[in-house]
Design a protein that fits this description.
Strand content of chain A: 15-25%
Number of helices of chain A: 13
Largest interface: A-B, 36 and 35 residues
Distance between the termini of chain A: 39 Å
Radius of gyration of chain A: 20 Å
Order of helices and strands of chain A: EHEHEHEHEHEHEHHHEHEEEEEEHHHE
Structural class of chain A: alpha/beta
Helix content of chain A: 25-40%
Shape of chain A: globular
Oligomer: homotetramer
Number of strands of chain A: 15
Largest sheet of chain A: 7 strands, mixed
Mean pLDDT of chain A: 96
Low-confidence stretches of chain A: none
């Protein structure tokens, strides 16, 4: 078998996750190069994983004709431009979320990808989570009947730094965007969004123009109802749950925990808190999404999570922001699309 | 000890529940009389439980000077009038929910009770449920810290008859009203309501002018956020859960089930569905609320669940109806109060 | 309907439990008299529950020709003699466990009951526990296939007083006897017993000639295997579980708890300890066994839990004692039967 | 850092597991060679993982002076001889369980290892299981108080082939041996064993001279009690649980499952069966034990799981066999040791 030759643009935390997945778990792919504007970072990862080439400038990767596919793991503001360049260079693309925080730039990516005829998969890894994927499977198998209510709980163990909050695009584009994608993954297209939002974790988040606790009510085009509740801080850790209620049954995913041990004494029965944060909870899903991407490239299958999914998650985030700003339900059709 | 002498107005299902609680579990009270417009019903319950007197006309109960307290368990449309008469007769009052479907009539009850100086407790029995009461206790003990999100799931095993739906006042006044009270019990006063509602269980419910699936987003005056999701039918039965998320921790109440047995075979591990319906799930709470009412009367304590609580639950229901009708968030202050 | 007329011999804790069951929950039966050698006790229960007659001498009950059935709730050493007298008097008998601590006296009861043609039910209430009864039902329905392993965990929240330990007959006759009955209820007749026993809770129990921690390995005649583990003290309370493993599946009963609430914070997720002790855990089962007894008397059905069950549980206890004393597996056939 | 150079003897299932752990997860070690009597197997693994050398004859590995440590993953009957040779060659040794099925040969290994002064770790990987290791940690932290009862459930999803059964040494040496090690890991040294055993899964197992369902009662030297229940087939899969009861509390490990999803409909609430078999359930533990072995070699620490642990687990298995054969409790002191 000819191996797919892959380059990684961005050697930070998520770039390393993907680099390890390919090195250790995906024999059909081979890492050829890694780049990072912080060249030492790229060098270090290359050394650790035996990647033959490392660069400061990602163009070196795009210019290498032996490379079939690139993983865009650089900072968010660079995603769209690099994706357009990579498409122009004929590379298949795996792009980390979010593609961009503006609809306009995502449009450009869509055009570039269409024109080049390359594949693009967005890194919505939660679709590959063992629990959520199983619920999707129950839905696909008709076990749930027609969907009526989709409930997503998504709380972080700690808020990000205020510096990050200021450039994050706000909770709806930064954090809820994953939940919006999950809502669409399960419930299909959304018709309308209404968001309640408040500052209860840290006043500094409010001063930075953002909120830290939110509830988003959704109406799906199917007529079903959805709700997402978010918080930037849960004292007990990373709370990631999904409940799907349909005419035939309900499926709910509990949190994953480090162990299944119950300790009981005079204070009650104690079990573990959730796994610490996204790297622990969703580790397997990162490998699984990459496996699927490589499979799509090798076997020329369409990717299941496309740039369009990135666009729609962004539009839902923008609708939620507008709902809070204007204090009313907002139709998704009010938000510019492609 | 002198026993409190009690009369029951209405010998239907809930009247019988209270009659049994007093007969079997509350030695401090004694049933003296029961009335029902269907006299045979009153007669039968009286015979079964050894109640000395039964009547067709509830006025006989109000006119009996030996009776200290009455339980109003008649049809909803009669609650307010009987409560006013009972107050005028100097009887302490336990009144089933809802007090009335109009604010105006509840006002009259408030006036009558104030003037007479009698006690009035509303039958919001879920406040006495072992699970929910324990969560309230955790909240009171400061275990949850400051409240951020209150989530209530409330689904019935089967929708009521279409005839009932037509006179019920709609899902928000008939079903969600209990959840509104629970929301206030846990989260305090509500500032604003936004409701999504749809017909997904039975088109006939829609034709009758009601909805069967709903999601209500709440803003509490404290700044906390709430959500109630309702459905008139869950394939797996009566789904009654509460989750309270605060700065220090989260408490969640799972459904009660007939047994704690897990059966595991090649199809997976199977545990029980929830207890069938409200009589099974909330049976103990009916006894406990009655025990508290009798205690309030005997020891001249203020009742904890007052007609004001009935009023506020009604106003939340009216706000939810208005939110659906006008498709916008509705401030509770827009709804006439007292 | 003619009500069954019942007399209770013994007005202590368990006598009161049965008195309340009949008064409040079994309309087909009527309490006519109660006796206790401590006459004030009988008087007080009679007053509380409206029982027309109370006596110091239980013979008054046996001599009352209007009484159909008696409940023997007196001290263990009196059970067998009273049962014989009651049978001779033509009364149907509900007898608390254990019937006696000797095989010889149980034989006399068997003879007396056979001769008189009256019914006798032993108070092995755990057979009526909602969890265990459901497992029995799964077994009867063939869901478990052929039984392979029966595992019973039975631990008390606190050891009894040393004075009680001294006259109790030892842990196997006093505590494990319930578990032996459960083992037979689920697994059928036992062929052989091997017991490990030790003193780990309180040296005083050892000094009194008893043990406080034990493990009993069983071989059933069917070829299946069983194990009972006991302890006189569990720090977290009353631990009563059953696991049945068969060729088609496994059923396990978890402990019942006061609430179904999970509280989660930085220390983990905490749920309730088991219900405090047997009165709380098995309360419903006491009512259910009495309902069945009354039904057997009224409708002339054979009782399901007979004096023979009492005898066999005793023999298993004696076999376990012998196994510890002689440090070897003991065939049940080595223990005198009837 | 100088990497430890490792050779693997045996390229079968477990050899591959360790090869992958070292390749992917243990940067401190480097695979230099792999051997297998089926040379193509060694070649294939070498190719897949980039191991520079593969051999048919393991002596090539022992003769390579650059190799620091060997992993003995060949068939059981070769373990002891190879271990002696490896010790003589000055290699540190990781040896799969069981070391041997005879005490005599294990003695030789002990002598050889002592003489050579090399490290030897036995592959009792379950000690590294996240659940069981956490219970051990609770024990070490004093959370359980003094141990009273250790209960191990260990059931396989399917029995091995009859051909395997015939050469396996019997259930106690082949399957229970892991549970005996777990019993010692948690409860310390064992004083006495009593075993019940029967054939309930497949008569052919009985005809092959073995049993398929067993219960082993243990007395620890501490005075605590233990029980192991085994079955060669559980309809619902691989059942691996541990419950440890002490004076201060109880810890219990439930099975790991593929997902945490509960699906509820009119048939009840269904959750996953356990993970399929030992490779799935204990995968992480294989990596963790290898990480510790490499750490012991690099940092010259004593291994925690020694050949003595292998010996004692074997002696417990032999005691259990003797107990069944002689139908009596057997002191461990009756079994020849070192």
């Amino acid at each position: 078998m000819e191996k797919i030759r892959v380059g990684i643009i961005g050697a930070g935390r998520i770039g390393q996750v993907h680099a390890k997945s390919i090195t250790y778990h995906i024999p059909q792919a081979q890492l050829v190069a890694i780049s990072d504007i912080y060249e030492e970072g790229a060098k270090s990862v290359a050394a650790q994983l035996g990647i033959p080439n490392y660069y400061k400038d990602y163009h070196k990767i795009l210019e290498d004709p032996s490379i079939d596919a690139v993983l865009i793991c650089s900072s968010t503001d660079t995603h769209a431009d690099i994706a357009c360049e990579a498409a122009a260079a004929g590379k298949h693309i795996f792009c980390e979320k979010p593609v961009d925080l503006t609809v306009a730039k995502i449009k450009k990516v869509i055009d570039a990808v269409d024109k080049a005829g390359v594949k693009l998969q967005i890194g919505f890894n939660r679709r590959y989570d063992h629990n959520f994927a199983y619920i999707k499977q129950l839905e696909n198998n008709g076990k749930l009947g027609s969907l009526q209510t989709v409930k997503i709980t998504s709380r972080d163990p700690e808020p990000p730094s205020i510096d990050y909050v200021k450039v994050s695009g706000g909770i709806f584009l930064d954090m809820t965007v994953h939940d919006f994608d999950m809502a669409r993954f399960i419930g299909g297209e959304v018709d309308e969004v209404y968001a309640n939002a408040t500052v209860m974790v840290d006043p500094a988040i409010g001063e930075a123009g953002d909120v830290d606790t939110a509830l988003v009510a959704l109406k799906f085009k199917s007529g079903a109802i959805g709700v997402i509740d978010n918080c930037r801080r849960a004292s007990y850790g990373y709370d990631q749950r999904l409940e799907v209620f349909g005419s035939k049954g309900q499926a709910s995913a509990a949190n994953d925990t480090p162990t299944n041990v119950a300790f009981i004494d005079e204070n009650g029965s104690v079990t573990d808190k959730p796994l610490y944060f996204f790297l622990e909870r969703y580790m397997q899903s990162f490998t699984d999404e990459m496996t699927e991407f490589i499979d799509c490239v090798i076997n020329d299958k369409p990717t299941k999570t496309t740039v369009y999914d990135g666009l729609e998650a962004l539009r839902l985030g923008l609708a939620a922001k507008k709902s809070v700003a204007e204090h009313r339900p907002v139709k998704l059709s009010e938000i510019e699309g492609c």
